[in-house]
């Protein structure tokens, strides 16, 4: 038996229970991993609340972890006991001391990256890679707008976009977060509580607008984000006719669809880790909690008491 966080009913942080679970042995194509660090992401809150539906009840939340391989399934090659591996996405269940994973879903962690750093960056970093390199390929000379620039993904987007040669505009809520965003590569910061970001973007770009907006906020910023583009909670439905005057492309990408094949996963994670090793990406690990205190971590995340990446330690 090992310990894991279990959710028996949907609700607030208090539904996260620290319990004994049976893990079992890996079957063909599987490995058993002893987790060393578990990344906390807002998607975990969505599953806990029922915004996203878990396939079973009760369930163990968590979409990101780094750990050591402690057993391999029969006939498996390419993975061995002692390997340090990371995974992000499905299957859910990383809030556990140990877990069974498909060997095809894990990637090797470079020896120069420690487990806490790897766990804090793998999901957010691959999200940034997909947004910057595949959804809209950022190139030198582009101007990008990053909403919530001081958030976990926002911080990485700013750093990476600057390294790609883009001019980066970031929106934040406080002076403190504005300072962080500037450290992370923002050429211009906008405190959206103090000034209208649409007017400010228009001023910064001399009326030209930006090439792409990365908007992780939603309803409160969506219409403004559209207004900031060149070519010209959950957002309300948008009629296609609203996009036509500017010939806009709108996408709500899902990371797992961009890392569906083994080659795609390795390429995506590999680019993230290489940028961490080279210093292009600096990971802000501002908070760590014992995994047994996941409820407190969730409460702090929802109450905006955290910044940067949050990591749970089994």
From TrEMBL:
Which Pfam family, any one, appears in the UniProt record?
ADH_N
What InterPro entries does the database record attribute to this sequence? ADH-like_C, ADH-like_N, ER, GroES-like_sf, NAD(P)-bd_dom_sf, QOR-like, Quin_OxRdtase/zeta-crystal_CS
- Which SUPFAM superfamilies does the record match to this protein? GroES-like, NAD(P)-binding Rossmann-fold domains
Q: Which PANTHER family match?
A: QUINONE OXIDOREDUCTASE PIG3-RELATED (PTHR48106), QUINONE OXIDOREDUCTASE-RELATED (PTHR48106:SF13)
- One Gene Ontology molecular-function label: quinone reductase (NADPH) activity
Q: Which residues form the Enoyl reductase (ER) domain?
A: 11-312
| Gene Ontology CC terms | cytosol
Question: Which organism is the protein's source?
Answer: Punica granatum (Pomegranate)
Question: SMART domains under this entry?
Answer: PKS_ER
Q: What is this protein called?
A: Probable quinone oxidoreductase
Q: Per its UniProt record, what Gene3D superfamilies does this chain match? A: Medium-chain alcohol dehydrogenases, catalytic domain, NAD(P)-binding Rossmann-like Domain
Alphabetically list the UniProt keywords.
NADP, Oxidoreductase
Q: What is the lineage of its organism?
A: Eukaryota, Viridiplantae, Streptophyta, Embryophyta, Tracheophyta
């Amino acid at each position: 038996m090992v310990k894991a966080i279990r959710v028996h009913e949907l609700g607030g942080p208090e539904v996260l229970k620290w319990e004994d679970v049976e893990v079992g042995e890996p079957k063909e194509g599987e490995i058993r991993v002893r987790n060393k660090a578990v990344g906390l992401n807002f998607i975990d809150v969505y599953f806990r609340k029922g915004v996203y539906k878990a396939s079973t009840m009760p369930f163990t939340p968590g979409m990101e972890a780094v750990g050591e391989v402690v057993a391999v399934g029969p006939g498996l090659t390419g993975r061995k006991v002692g390997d340090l591996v990371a995974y992000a996405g499905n299957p859910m269940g990383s809030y556990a001391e140990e877990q069974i994973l498909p060997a095809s879903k894990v990637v090797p962690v470079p020896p120069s990256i420690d487990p806490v750093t790897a766990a804090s960056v793998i999901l957010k970093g691959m999200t940034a890679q997909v947004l910057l390199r595949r959804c809209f390929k950022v190139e030198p000379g582009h101007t990008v707008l990053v909403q919530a620039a001081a958030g976990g993904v926002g911080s990485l987007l700013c750093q990476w976009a600057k390294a790609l040669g883009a001019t980066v505009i970031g929106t934040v809520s406080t002076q403190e977060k504005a300072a962080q965003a500037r450290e992370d590569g923002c050429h211009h910061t906008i405190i959206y509580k103090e000034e209208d970001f649409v007017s400010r973007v228009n001023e910064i770009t001399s009326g030209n607008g930006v090439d792409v907006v990365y908007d992780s906020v939603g309803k409160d910023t969506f219409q403004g984000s559209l207004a900031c583009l060149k070519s010209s909670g959950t957002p309300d439905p948008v009629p296609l006719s609203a996009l036509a005057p500017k010939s806009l492309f709108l996408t709500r990408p899902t990371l797992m669809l961009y890392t569906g094949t083994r080659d795609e996963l390795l390429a995506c994670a590999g680019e993230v880790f290489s940028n961490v090793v080279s210093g292009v990406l600096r990971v802000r690990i501002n908070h760590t909690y014992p995994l047994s205190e996941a409820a407190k971590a969730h409460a702090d995340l929802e109450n905006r008491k955290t910044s940067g990446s949050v990591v749970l330690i089994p």
